[in-house]
Each structure stands twice: as structure tokens, then as C-alpha cells.
Design a protein that fits this description.
The complex is a heterodimer of chains A (about 350) and B (about 375). Chain A is an alpha/beta fold and about 350 residues long. Chain A is built from ten helices and 14 strands. Helices cover about 25% and strands about 30% of the residues of chain A. Chain A has helices spanning about 50-55, 100-105, 125-135, 160-175, 180, 190-205, 220-240, 250-255, 275-280, 285-290; strands spanning about 5-15, 20-35, 35-40, 65-75, 85-90, 110, 140-145, 150-155, 210-215, 240-245, 260-265, 265-275, 340-345, 350. Chain B contains 13 helices and four strands. Chain B has helices at about 5-10, 20-30, 35-50, 55, 160-200, 200-215, 220-230, 235-265, 270-275, 280-320, 330-335, 340-345, 350-370; strands at about 75-80, 85-100, 105-130, 130-140. The radius of gyration of chain B is 27 Å and the shape is elongated. The chains are: A alpha/beta (about 350), B alpha+beta (about 375). At the A-B interface, helix 2, helix 3, helix 6 and helix 7 of A face helix 9 and helix 10 of B.
Amino acid sequence: MSEPLVEVKDLKVEFAVRDGIVHAVDGVSFTVYRGRTLGVIGESGCGKSVTAKAILHMVPKPGKITGGEIIYYRRVRNDGAGQTTEPVNIIQLDPDGEEIRKIRGGEIAMIFQEPMSSLTPVYTAGSHIGEAVTLHRLIPVRKIGDQMVETIQAHRGVSKQEAREIAIEMLRRVGIPKPQQRVDSYPHQLSGGQRQRVMIAIALSCEPAMLIADEPTTALDVSIEAQILDIMRELQETTEMAIMFITHNLGVIAEMADEVCVMYMGKEVEQASTVEIFYQPRHPYTQALLKSIPRVGRKSRERLASITGMVPDPFHLPPGCVFHPRCPDYMPGKCDHLMPSWTQVGEGHWVRCLLYEEV
Amino acid sequence: MAEQAAPTTIRAPERKQISQSYWSLVWWKFKKNRLAIVGGVLIILFYTICGLFAEFFAPYTLQYQSNYLEARPQPIVFKDKAGNFSLRPAVYGLRSEIDAKLRKRFFVVDETRIYPLYFFVKGQPYKLFGLIPTDIHLFGTDPADPEAHAFLFGTDRLGRDLFSRIIYGGRLSLLIGLLGQILTFIFGTVMGVISGYYGGITDIVVQRMTEFVGAFPDIPLFMALAAAIPVTWSPIWVYFMLTLILVFIRWGGLARQVRGIILSLREREYVLAARSFGASDRRLMFRHLLPGTLSHCIVIATLMIPGMILSETALSWLGLGLRPPLTSWGVLLQEVTSVRSIRFAPWLLLPVPFVILAVLSFNMLGDGLRDALDPYGGR
């Protein structure tokens, strides 16, 4: 197993709004490994995006991180051969401080859902990438000693000219045609797919250790989506970058993720490798989700399955397991009283369901 | 299959520019507005004539006093010294006459004397930009003839040429508008951005401040602040203080407008995106949010300059602004505070058309800018 990069432990995020407290994220734990992809799926409003923002310590206003830890294993550059990691608890950093700003973008980058509006309209594509690059990227200065080919690496900031060259290079890498011209284009001159590529180029320009992609392809059509996913995978192979991929598109997850984490109402309900999730889903919610995908070539005339009932009101969560009112395997007397715990059902396969607990 | 190299085989013809930049669109739209062009040209003329080259365009220096007190404007004629038609413009001389009934001396136009006007003549020495010593004026009378004089707009009570004084006065009046507006612009937008971006307590404090300043009656506040300027200060400091007072009273409006725009802009995704790439608050405010308000601010600022100019004129006229050793349009108008001067020297009101022209030019330019800076909008 590769080394862990970000470890989220029992994360809790609450939003204190007028009608009460919403537990947007309620005890989520997962680990993202270097060079691997974690897919996070779930319905709208289940806390996926909030979890992602919590990793960057950017929970929006009324929200507050009330518990848990997010440990980021930061690589320390050593003069010697090896590289050691130093754990940083992101939650304990000042959300407006220097330290977290270095991590944001520089070490953990994020791509948002709306490529149309994620670029500041008054700046060109190139100046966006240049901004990220000048904020974070350091270029090694190599000096060669007299006798031995000794390489001393110091680091300095990037000049404007270099930033522009990096920007062009990044645009080329994400597959934008004529990058020398496109670097001077304003966001309104680019198409949706191009803007999302620019976003990816910005995110990748500082060679982050982790990329959080929050539904990066939702606003794009399928052919562009396929290209974007290819670019992300390619870059992951070359840079050992970890990806946290948030989506509700199960097809994309199947293609991209190594592991999958299924969330429901701020809780993780199941976590396993992608293959396990798709072939042996344990949690009734995961099973229902998978059944709700239309399949090409399905013969029967039966209607497409949907999950019965509605997403519960976040202020009045049902007692016991939050999913029990909609659950096809509801066990009266158990599910509506007992909180299921995080149980291991196979190798690396965890479920939060009373079906797999001895009670 | 879709990824095969189909796009590379078809080569689009190379074009130099893919689409117009924002500013070329703005310029293109601005050009179509005749009135705005006129306003812009007039403003440029005003600032070059009055601001930069006042000494050159004015036939007399600011200190020059003639023996012709309250002389009426000398009309321009196209005659030579003998009285025959000539292309060279000339002015009639002045002759003093005593009105027995009013017991007052008047100057009347003497058609027997004709002084031709020459261009680029040597006149009184001055320093261009305060540096280059020269004595060339745009026009003037024959320097060889000491009797010759040309007061196109007449003279004031001390025999000073009003035309020259209007040009010199324009310098201070127009500069106070520009300087004051630049300071207001900086102060107002910065306060607006801070107020809108941080919200909460900061917002409340800034907004109550603008309301307090805005709710204060203008004239008493001016009087109080102007009275606070020590009399012993040099005129330049008084001028500067007056500018600051104007800024202090006027920044609120701009700050509120900027705040309003920032409140809507800061919720945009690109702010979140920039934050996720590690941008600091200051960077977000001034690099990502402020540019979004600029087109609006430029228009507001242009439309506010006339207000500045008028305030200076009004204050100086009331005796609260600039004081006589300095010359501005308001100071010039201070001489026409009585019915007597309007009855006997109505030409002293001639600064008024210039104030009106300057104010109208700024308004026309501002209106044109407002339409042009939103080139993507319809209309």
C-alpha cells in the first residue's frame, strides 16, 4: 500500500442556521493515499462538498468544524536522499493564516463544479495560471560545484516571464489547442470545456500532492468529460498525485476511482475498493444507488428503480439509522432504535449497517 | 474513436486576432457617441490650455496690472492700422471718459486706435512648467509699442486682464476637481471593498460613517472645516486642505456603491476558486474583486468631478475656499458679489460660461463612458 497523504478522522461540520443546527458532516473518516484516487459519491446535500472544503479549511460562513482531525502528511524536502513526512493537522491551522494558504493551491488544489464562473472575468487564462504559479511554485536553483557534480538546490520564486512559459506549457498539457494564443484569452472567449481545462491547468500548475475535484465534469458534455478525465488520469500517472473525486456520476467513479466512499446525510455508509462497491455492494443504500443506473441493453420492460421516499429533513433526522425510513431491508425494532457502527465486512470493506452487526 | 487526430488534419486559416479585447470594444463603442467625443476633446483642451500651458496661452501673467481699471472687453476686428480690411485680427484701443452724473471714470472703445494682434509674440517672461524660462505667448500686441494692450474679456477692478485670469483660474479649479476625485476614488473604493468584503462589524462601522458624513448639512460642515484651517498657512496648503475637505465629504457615495457591487461579487465562484488556490484576503479584495467594480467606478468618478468643481467654485465664492492670492474660477467670481459690479462690469461674470462648459463636458464624457464601458450590453 502506498503511503497515506490525507487522513480524515471522525470529521464533524455543523451549520448553525436559524432553525437549528445542521450536521452537514457527521463523523466521516477516510484516508487518501499518494497516487491513488478516492471517489466520493452520494446524493445532493449529503456533505461531499463540505468535506472537500473542510480539507482546505474553507467551510463556508455559518459552518464550523466541530470535531475530528484532518491530518495532512506533508512532505519535507530533505537535502539528503530520503524524504520524510511531517503530519500537519489542518483543522488547527488559522483559516486565514500563511500556513494554510501555502497548502491551498500549492499542496492541495481544488477544482470546482462550475467552470463557467470559477475564473475571474477580468484576467486572461495565462494570468490565472501565472497567479497560482507565482503564489506557490518555486524553481530550484542548481549550482554545480568544482570537483564533484554536486547539486545544491535552493528555491526561488518565479518571474513573470517564467510564469507565462509555465502557463503555456500547462495549457498545452491539458490539451488546449494553440496555447500561445489561448494564454491571452479572457474567460468569456473560452468554451466551457476550455475553461474547465484552464481550471485544471491552474490546479496542476503548482504540482500539488492532492487534487480535490468537486464534480469537475458535471457542467460539461460527455465527450469533453471523457477528455478531461483522461487528462487527469494521465497527469496522475506522471506526478503521483492523489485525487479525491466527488461526483454523483457512478460511471465516472467506476472509471476513475481506486476506492469509493459512499455518503448519506453527512455520514459515510460504505467504503470499499471500486470493484467491491460495484460487484458486492453491502449497504442497502449503495445497492439502491447502483440499481438506479439505467443500463444499455437491459431487456425487461420494468421501470428504472428509484430509492423510495425522500431525503429526510436535516433538522429532524430519523432516530437510529438515518436511512431506515427508505431502506428496503428495514428491520423493525432494530434499525429505528440503534445507531449502526462502522463495521468491517471484508478486506478494506467497511459498512455502517445493522445487517452486518451482531445485535 | 473520437480522440483520433481529426481536428489536426483540417487547418483553419490563421487569423491574427481571434476576438476583440475589452478595451478595443469600449473604444469602438465610445467613438460612436458624438457627444461623448466632444466632451472628451473639450476636457483635454481645458486641461492642456489651463492646466499645462496656462502661461503660454494667457497673454499676460497673473501678476500684471494695467492702468485700465474695469475696462470693458475690446472687440476683435479684422482691420490694419489704417482702418482697411486685413486678415490679421486686431483690437480697438481704449479711451477713458468721465461720466459727470455718476462721478465715475469709464473706459470706452476708441475706434481711432487699432492694435493688431500678433501670434507667438514675446511678452512678459515666465517659466513653462515652472522650469523652462521663456517669454513667448500665443498671442499679444506688438511688443515694440508700449501703449498697445489687448483685454479680450476686459479687466477687473485692479486692471488685471480677465482673459488671462480665467485661464489661470481654470488651472486650480480643474485640478481641484481631478485631484480631489482621484483621492475620493482611492479612498472610496478601498473603504467600499473592505466594507463589502469583510462585512459584519467592519461593514457596520464604515456604513454608519458614510451615513453620518452624508447626513451632515454641507455648508455648515464646510464652514466649520474651512474655519479650522489656520489663516497663517500658505495658500498652497489651504488649497490642499480644501481638497481633503471635499474628499472627506464626498467619499461616502462611492464607497456605498462599491460595497454594493462587492457584496454581490464576493459570492461568485471565482472568489472561492481563487481562495482555494491560496490567495490572501488582500489579494482577493484588490486583485479579484476590485477590477470588477472599476468600470462602474470610473463612470461614477467622472460624473462626480463636476460636483467637485462646482463645490470649489461655490465655496470660494462664499469666501470659505481659496483666498485671493490664488486664482480660481470661484475666486474670480467673488468679485461679482454686488449689484454694483454686475451693473458696471458685467464682463466679470465671464468665468461662469467656462464653469458651465467644463461641467457639461465632464457630464457628456461620463455619460459616454457609462454606455461604452459595458460593451457587451445591448442598445
